[in-house]
Amino acid sequence: MANQQQGSSRPWILEALPLLVVILIAAHVLALVYWIYRVATEKQPQRSKKH
């Protein structure tokens, strides 16, 4: 029972790693959605036909 107060023996970075991965994935997904939105709403230059 003396070992109960020790808690987790893993370093804090390994405890936080899954959360960091989820945050990074979410940030990339948001950036991709924003980029698609910017491309879709971008004003296209007027093309004039010259013969």
Shape: rod-shaped
Report the mean per-residue pLDDT as an integer. Answer: 85
Estimate percent helicity. Answer: 55-70%
Give the low-confidence spans. none
Please provide a brief summary of the model.
Helix content is 59%, strand content 0%.
Chart the SSEs and their pairings.
Blueprint: H1 12-41
Features:
single chain, 0% strand, mainly alpha, 51 residues
Please tell me about this protein's structure.
59% of the residues lie in helices and 0% in strands. The chain is an all-alpha fold and 51 residues long. The chain has a domain of 29 residues. The longest helix is centred in the middle third of the chain and has 30 residues. The N and C termini lie far apart (90 Å).
